[in-house]
Amino acid sequence: MFNFSGNRPNNLGVKNGKLTACPGTPNCVNSQSSNAQSKIAPLPMISIAELKKVVESMERTTIIEETNDYLYAEFKTPLMGYVDDVEFYLDNSENVIHVRSASRLGKSDLGLNRKRVEEIRNKIESKN
């Protein structure tokens, strides 16, 4: 089996109410982005505990960090073992969950990060 996991980024997390910006490659989406290529709608507001259940229900997922307003998970692709870093920030001022999903390696993800966030959105909306 191949392993293209790359190194865990050291610039993740919430700083001044913002998740890290996307690098400008098409393998990243961010609900706080102003760039049309990477822009995605934030998720509906639910608790971090509920969000964690949704994330853990998905395959090849590892929770890395959890606080009362932040969740960071790694998703691994089945064949090549590429790792995507996915962060969620519960923004009480906007009453949404901001999300950032980015591939660690490469430039294109064939839309996988956007597809994953939309899958999470569908799971949240089907619960409500």
Report what the structure shows.
There is one protein chain. This protein is of the alpha+beta class and 128 residues long. Helix content is 20%, strand content 30%. Strands 3, 4, 5, 6, 7 and 8 form a 6-stranded antiparallel beta sheet that branches. It has a two-stranded antiparallel sheet with strand order 1-2. It starts with 13 loop residues before the first strand and ends with a helix. The model has no long low-confidence stretch (mean pLDDT 91).
Question: What descriptors fit this protein?
Answer:
128 residues; alpha+beta; 6-stranded antiparallel β-sheet; two-stranded antiparallel sheet; 2 helices; 8 strands; globular
Helices and strands, with pairings:
Elements: E1 14-15, E2 18-19, E3 28-30, E4 43-44, H1 48-56, E5 61-66, E6 70-76, E7 83-91, E8 96-103, H2 112-127
Antiparallel strand pairs: 1-2, 3-8, 4-8, 5-6, 6-7, 7-8
Q: Largest sheet, if any?
A: 6 strands, antiparallel
Estimate the helix proportion, in percent.
Answer: 10-25%
Beta-strand percent range: 25-35%
Counting DSSP H or I runs of 4 or more residues, the number of helices is: 2
The succession of helices and strands, N to C, reads: EEEEHEEEEH
What is the mean predicted local confidence, pLDDT? 91
Short account of what is shown:
The chain has 2 helices and 8 strands.
